[in-house]
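Final paragraph of the annual report: two paired records, presented back to back.
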Amino acid sequence: MAVKSLLRLLLGLLIIPLFASCSDDKASQAEDLLASVPADADMAGVIDMEAVISHLELDKKNPLPELKKRLETLHLNPDCLSGTRMSVAVVFSRGSKLYITGYLDDSKAFKKAFSALSKSTFKAEGNVDLCQASTGQWATVCGNQFWLCDRGTPDANEIRDYSAQSKGYLSRKGAERLLEFKHDMAILGSISNFIRNFSPNTKEDFSSALVINSLFADPQFADAWIDFEKECLTLDAGFLNSSSKPAEFTLPLKKIDAEVVKQTVTSADMIFAANIPSDAIKRIGKNFGAFLPMQNLEALDGTIAIAASEKERAISGVILTNGKNISGLTLLINELAPMDTEVKDNLLFFHTPGSITGPVNVAEAAKSFGHSYVGAIFKPSRSANFPFSDKWVNLSIYPSGSSARIAIKLSSTPLSK
C-alpha cells in the first residue's frame, strides 16, 4: 500500500541527517530539490529533517540505540547512507513510483555503503547509476543527487530529465507553500492521488470523490502537514480549490457542545461526537437522500455523542433533538443494535446492556472537542490494516475560515497535549 511505503521511507529517512553534514541554506536546497520534481507529479512534499531530529529528541552523539528501536521493522541500516548531505529532503509520487530525493557530499561513499547493504552493485546507464536492494528498494545517483525509490522501478531517462529541470514542481500553482517551513513536513497533491493512496478499491475511490465534491466547493488539491514529537505525530490536511485557495466547506455544521458529550459516561475506550444541526440534515438529504433514511434523521438537531467499551462491547450515547419524529430516530438506532432509549427534554439517550469504563476521560475529551465539528478518540483494532495500532488516535474535523480541515494525532495516551 502506498501509505505504508511512504511511512517506511519517512522513518528510514530519519537516520540520514545523523550521518550528514549541516546544510548551508535549507530553503535554497528545498527549492532546488523541488525543481527536480516533475511538474505533473501527483504529490510532492518537503521534509525539514533538522526540525524532525530536534522534535524527536534523538541523541546526535549516540543515536544508534534509539535508531535500532525505530528500525526494527525496517530493512535499512544506518551505515548504508554514508555520504549524504541533507537538512531537507523531498518526497514525491508520479504514477506508480514513490521517491525521496536529496543531495550527496560523497557519492562514492554512498554507493559503497548501499551496495554492501543490497549485496548488489550500481550499474551505470549514462550519467545515472542504479542499484536494487534485496528488499526491493532502489537507490539512484545522478551527479550529486540521490533518489530512493520504494515503489516501482526507477528509469534512468526519467532521472536524467528530472535532474535537468529548471522549474519542475515549482511551476505548479501553490507549490510555494511547501517552502514555508512552518511544519516538519509539508505536502501538496491532487485529490485523486490522496484518494487513490488511502482507498483500497476503485468503488471506494468513487465514493470518496463524491463525498468530497458534495462537501467542498471546487476541491482540486489536498494540502497537508506533519509534525513529529518524541511520543506523538500530528497530521493535518485540507482541500484547495483551482485557485489554490482553501476550498469552501458547504455543509453547515456547528461546533460540538461539550456539555452534551459529558452526559454519555464518565470514561470509555472510545468516544465520538459531532454537531449536525437540522440545516445540515436538509443538505445531507439533498445530496444523499437516495442512500440514507432521511425521514428517520429529521429529529437530529445538534450534538450527537457515542461512547463505547471494548471489553463489555457496550455502547452509550446521547442525541440533541428538535422533538420531531423521535420514534423514527429511535427505530433507526435499534436497527444498528438493540438499545434501551429514554427521552429527557430534547435529549435522546440510548445504551446497550453492560457498563462502560476505559482510559478516555470523557469530560476532558468533550472539552478538547469544543472547537471541532467532529471529534473522536479511539485505539484502532490490532487486526486493522494500520501501522500504528498500538497508538491512540485523536481525530478532529474543525473549521478553518470558510473551509474545514481534518487533524489526526497519534500518541501513546488518549489526550496528549
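The closing record of the year follows.
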Amino acid sequence: MSLDHIVAFLYNVIDFFKKRKIPEFYIERKFLRNNKTSVLKIILSPRGDSVPPTDKILFKRLYRKGYSCLYYYISGSVLSTDPYKTVENFNMVKNQVRFDVSKLKTEYHLERIDIITSSMGAVSACLIANNNDNINNISLIAPGSTLASSLWNGIRTQDLRKIYEEQGVNHEKLKNIWTTIEPKNNIDTLSDKRIFISISKSDKVIPYVFGKELPDLIRNLYPNNISVKENKYLGHYFTVVKYYLFSKELLK
C-alpha cells in the first residue's frame, strides 16, 4: 500500500466520524504586511474542509523570511457536486485574487508577486497567473495538468466521481464542462514568469501521468523558464510536506 493510500484511508476515517455538512463555497484571506520588502508571497489553499497545517507552517516560514504574505483559504466546496458550479467557483477565485493583487500592488508599491500552491490549487494558480503581468513567479507542488482527469482517477475524489456518474456526467463530458479552467489550457501566456513544479512518480491523488504532463507542456512553451523536481516515493501528501515544511525552494 502506498503512502498516499494510507493517508487517504486516514482522511476517510476522519470524514466518516465527522459527518459534517458541506458548507456553501466561500473564500477567506489573511494578509500580513512587511514594510521592509516589496515582495508578496501568495499561498492558495488546495481543496479541503479546513486550513491545512502545511499551509499555516509555510505562511509562517515565508513571513519570518521577510516577505509580505497573503493567504487564501478556498473552501472544499469549490469542487461542487454540480460540475457547472465548479467552473463558476474557480472563476470567482480568479477574479477575487486578481482584484486583490492589483489593489495591493498599487497600494504598497510591490515589485514582485509570487504564487505558491499545491494539488488542485494549481487550477486557481494558472487561472490567476495566465495573461497577468502582476504575477512574477509560480510554484506548484504536486499539481496536475487536468482537473477532470485527476478527479476521475485520483483516490481522494472517487466520491465526487460517483455523484457525477449518477447525474449522467461521464469522463468525457466532465472534460468538456471544465475545459476553460483546466491548468493545461491556462498556460499560454506565462513566458515572463519563473515556474517551479515538484511531482512524485508515486502520486495517487493526482496520478503521475497528469502531474508529469503539466511541466512537459510548459517546458515545450518556455524551456528556459521552468524548473522541475521529481521524486519516486514520497507520493502526493509527503511531497507537499517536504516543500512546505522543509525545502528552501519556496523561500526564494
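The first helix runs from residue 3 to 18. This concludes the annual technical report; the extension proposal builds directly on these records.
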